[in-house]
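hi! just following up on the protien thing from before. the input was this:
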Amino acid sequence: MAQATNQIFGALWLKGLKMTADMLIGTCFDGYHLRGCTNSNTTSMHYGISNQLVSGKTYCLQCCSNPTSIGNDETWDLTCPLTRMEQSTVINDINKEYVFARRRNLTDTGLIYCTWPKRNGGLYLVGYSLQIVVQEYSASSGSIFWVGVESCSVSAIESSTLPTIFTERIRIVSSLESYTPSSLWYLLLGAVLIVMTFSSYVFYRGYIRHERCVNCASKFVVYNSLCLLCILCGCRLHSPPPRVFCAQEFEKDDTSSVSSHHQKEQQDNNKQME
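and the predicted 3d structure came back as:
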């Protein structure tokens, strides 16, 4: 269903005659089907508009080749020679309307209409000026892309002189879609900032201040002069302090030891006397 195209689907249609999106999809807008049109807008030639204007063939309206900072804005200023038969068809045309496929998604069946303003009965139609507001869409990482039409407006170019040249001036304008990041994007950004801050802190302590882990001598010091691995392993900050003995307790222990020694000697002497 035309899932990878820059073509703008639309047609000039008889007012009151039923039109559906299925009928338009795949139908590139080509105005009055005039052949041999040339581009009079020399400033747009390097954007490729003139490259697809082939003598003897109708043009196909496409978007967009003139990107700006806020979207696209390009004008197809076409002049098309009229044969006698084409002249008789277009100069008094009053019962047509412009119909475009909206295409906000690939299953959208909406249509966009713009009709002729009130014509002057005594003048010939020698051209029209059409403005189309479009939106560019994409999916599947850009492998699928298409163009939808949001609105259009048209005005007639009229003259009292019978024309031999028909003018089709088509301006295509698009605005860039506003982008709103998801909450997951903010969470990811926050996580990256935390990791970067933590890494900078560790680098500063180990490689600028030359601190080392008191347990394993690693440079990746995190907290309390310990590296992260030692903290996770439960390693102690310092070796246990030496045991301190109280002087009084020491004297008690020494007295008890001497007393026990005397008692033992007395017992040994008694045994010898017996």
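The helical segments are 21-24, 84-90, 183-208, 228-233, 247-273.
DSSP finds five helices and eleven strands in the chain.
cheers
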